[in-house]
Amino acid sequence: MGQDGIRIEEMKNQGPTYLSEYNIHLHPNGEKQYSILCSAIPLKEGFVGREQELETLEQKFQEGRTVFLWGIGGIGKSELAKQYATRWNGSVVWANYASSLRDVVLGITLGGFSIPAKAKAEELEQYYLQKKAVIKQLCAQQRVLLIVDNFNETESDEVEDLESMGWYLLF
Description:
The N terminus is likely disordered. Helix content is 35%, strand content 17%. By secondary structure, it is α/β, with parallel strands linked by helices. The radius of gyration is 16 Å and the shape is globular.
């Protein structure tokens, strides 16, 4: 189907080692339908003994919309986030941090949007603002958890920008 007729339903990967994929839909004023297309999140077998941390995450999200997981590399922050995602009551988007949170947003696949090839800075900025507006509408309709893996900044104005879109955020 073309962009104006995109209809993507909940999809599930086969096998127990993957978190199901959920696609988020928006029908603004009966016009185009937009979807965030989420990739599967591989889960490790044998995740045990972290129930207390999972309950703490749930409590933190009842208190606010942004939670940071802190600790040295290799202690299981990413696995904890993946396991928490399986319990989330809503949609989940997983992203890997590389250079900026703005790039994270630009990298989220949003059906109905395509980044202009060889976009100039002003075109990229316009694309970002449009995408941000659609994400804001999507997040207003349902609970959407954005997990940003490997984000190690202690302070960033970009976090506030993500928060303004309405995500629940787990770093």
